[in-house]
Amino acid sequence: MFQELPDHRLWLVKQRHAELIHEADQYRLARAHTDEPGDHLSTRLFNRIRVDLEQGFVSVRRTLSAYEPPCDDTCPEGAPC
Q1: pLDDT tens-digit profile of 46-70?
Q2: Cβ contacts of residue 43 below 8 Å, gap of 6+?
Q3: Where are the alpha helices (DSSP H) in the chain?
């Protein structure tokens, strides 16, 4: 009778894991559009950072513009101060 050794089981598990990884990669490549980047996680991360920074700068600009002192210089008519 054939006895299965632990090393043989481990080899089978590793083999199946490699097959599943290969199939997943092929599926991802087949479903990807040509204009999409390959790494969606980093793209989403950078987009989120950009949006957060933009919101921060908008709030800083809004805060600073609220505290701008009035213009004391005498400007010619029609010229912005």
Answers
A1: 888 999 889 888 888 888 777 666 6
A2: 37
A3: 6-31, 40-66
